[in-house]
Amino acid sequence: MNKKVMIQVDEQIEKTLYAYIVLPYVLKLFKKDIQTFENGPFSANVPYLDKLDTAIQSAQDDLNAVKQTIYKQYHMKVRYLGKKNDIIRYDWQTRDDSGDVRFTPDQLYELTKDMMGLYLYGMLAKEVIPSNRAWY
Known about the structure:
Layout: H1 11-39, H2 46-73, E1 77-84, E2 87-93, E3 98-103, H3 105-120
Antiparallel strand pairs: 1-2, 2-3
Helix pairs in contact: 1-2, 1-3
């Protein structure tokens, strides 16, 4: 009988796995925010766009690093399994172990919101470099 064994992953692997799952949502929402500021009725949108550009670049760099860690250090494969009964599921596999991660939409929303805050004004926020965008 070939049965998958679910184990508890250590705290660092869990943080990396959560970042791997949540960062794409963060990037998607930041990019949506860019469109909102570019297309909205805002007269002084350049500072906000510059802040979002900085946050997007930082989050993308972190996602690239997280992917490298997941694949090369932990030799882990992560898959999105979909949403069923209001639970969003992912599974992960290494050569020796496997398991799954489950979120309610509210949990995933909170994780995404918290991580966005870290990139905008928290410990992951970077100094904004003004762009050459034209002020309309």
